[in-house]
Amino acid sequence: MKTLEQGELHVSRLAELNDPFEFRPALAWVNPVFPHGVVDQFLGFLVREFNPKMGIVSFSEEIGDPVLWSHYADKHRGMALAFDVIRDDSLWPMAYPEERPTFDVQKFPGMTLEEAKAMVHRILAAKAPSWRYEREQRVFVDLPSSRLENGHYFHRIPADCLVQVVLGIACPVREVEVQEALWAGGLGEVAVVRARRCLTKFKVLV
């Protein structure tokens, strides 16, 4: 409700994501001379580099999976926000490869700029296969352009981008309360619907 009342999305910080493998590449080979902790600390270089400058807002292509509602919508007591987005280069689809993308230390100095960008893109867009159910898409947000409040960053929801608010199956909030919050946040007339249990499948209907 606070998201709607303020018309802003919370921006996640890279160093605070719930997957400890985020933005950390693998090495093709590790010299046993170096202690594990030292190498692991080195592989956090992308997080250290980008955490002060950018954050992310995560979206999912899937709304019917009951597990997503359980994990990210307070066990179906929360809401889902549906957005109409332009699929351009700012929207990053996540990949779920069987193997972690590697940072090739030996080849990196000789890479062209495009090759280096491609390698970094593979690292930033990869999560373990067990996350595949999320069908995640991300937008990277410039932190200096976001609003800072009590250590948290917020990004304004673009006009006409939010098209629907879906109340969870067990959501106690009334539709009229959501409409009031939308108007308070300057989001205007947005469709508000309530999710339903499918009668034949393990699926949430909207």
TrEMBL record:
This is DUF2971 domain-containing protein. It comes from Oleiharenicola lentus.
